[in-house]
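Journal club side-thread
Mid-discussion, someone asked how the predicted structure for our own chain would compare to the paper's figures. Pasting it here so we can look after the session.
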Amino acid sequence: MNRIPHPTRRRLLLSGGSIAALSALAACDKVLPASFNGVDITGANYANDFRLTDADGRERTLADFKGKAVMMFFGFTQCPDVCPTALVRAAEIKRLLGADGDRLQVIFVTVDPERDSPVVLKAYTQAFDPSFIGLYGDMQRTSETAKDFKVFYKKVPTGSSYTMDHSAFSYVFDPKGKIRLVLRHEQGAQECAEDLRKILQSA
């Protein structure tokens, strides 16, 4: 997988080549002839569901969010740049959607369950927007979920501690719970909001 260099240990792990690879894995039976700014992966045979725990101890799956578009990002709370940038953008997308913002559920999945306790995860996600939800699993469930979603992450030692390299894209599901889009990290909030609006209008 190609990597785009970054000043920190974070990587924007979704280059043009890997985006094309994700897109190629999607089936050809498109639900709508919509034109998106992000990568249309409608009909993909991966990233179809998850089973993770929220900060209040409840097990969550995609079925819990039927009727809403879901935007899902994998990261960790001690990330200094990529993750906060993605969540600030998510909050702006919600604002740009206006009244439809209530039909968007943003989910942050930690790839660092060793440090991201439920209390830490809840405080982190709600600092960006009270409606954002943080999800976690044990080490095995985290690994299985990342594999199911074709998400890369890796622990990187830093002196007496460690940081995480991880993929930097967001998945979008439509209100019926079907995978539809990959949003690139470099896309602006306005472009993303345009895509989300189309997804919501198709429901």
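Post-session note: The longest helix spans residues 82-96.
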